[in-house]
Design a protein that fits this description.
By secondary structure, the chain is of the alpha+beta class. The chain is built from three helices and five strands; from the N terminus they run αβββαββα. The protein has a single domain, classed as HIT family, subunit A.
């Protein structure tokens, strides 16, 4: 009889955990808020072990991720009234697949340049962060 061990359990990369706060979970992805009040900035992290690229997900999971990106993007745009959404899966610093969704405004602190590494992060005001998360939860229906 051959026994196989269960697959390794998914864990959030420590680099992502350090820079975010939990919003909730969707069917596939964990939704996180970046700990920087300069920009309304969310991350979607598929809860799958060892996934670095979108193509590492099977086709059904890829479609689910796209659905979740659209759902979260619509909610972020509705809550912020932003001019533009920046959506990217870079992974240059953290190898675990994660999708950035950043609400941008013309004339914001780095417009029209990218947000990555442009300014030091500013902590969130706890009350404002709580309001932001509550508004997003209402629109996204995270678990």
């Amino acid at each position: 009889m051959i026994f196989s061990s269960p697959p390794p359990e998914w864990q959030l990369h420590p680099g992502l955990e350090k820079d975010t706060t939990l919003l909730g979970d969707l069917a596939l992805s964990r939704v996180l808020v970046i700990e920087d009040s300069t920009f309304p900035w969310l991350l979607l992290v598929p809860r799958r072990f060892g996934v670095a690229e979108i193509i590492d997900l099977d086709e059904v999971e890829q479609a689910q991720l796209m659905t979740e990106i659209a759902r979260v993007s619509r909610a972020l745009k509705a809550v912020t009234g932003c001019d533009k959404l920046n959506i990217a899966a870079l992974g240059n610093m953290v190898p675990q697949l994660h999708v950035h969704i950043v609400a941008r405004r013309q004339g914001d602190a780095t417009w029209p340049r990218p947000v990555w590494g442009a300014l030091p992060p500013r902590p969130h005001d706890p009350a404002e962060l709580a309001r932001f998360k509550a508004a997003l939860r209402e629109k996204i229906w995270v678990m």
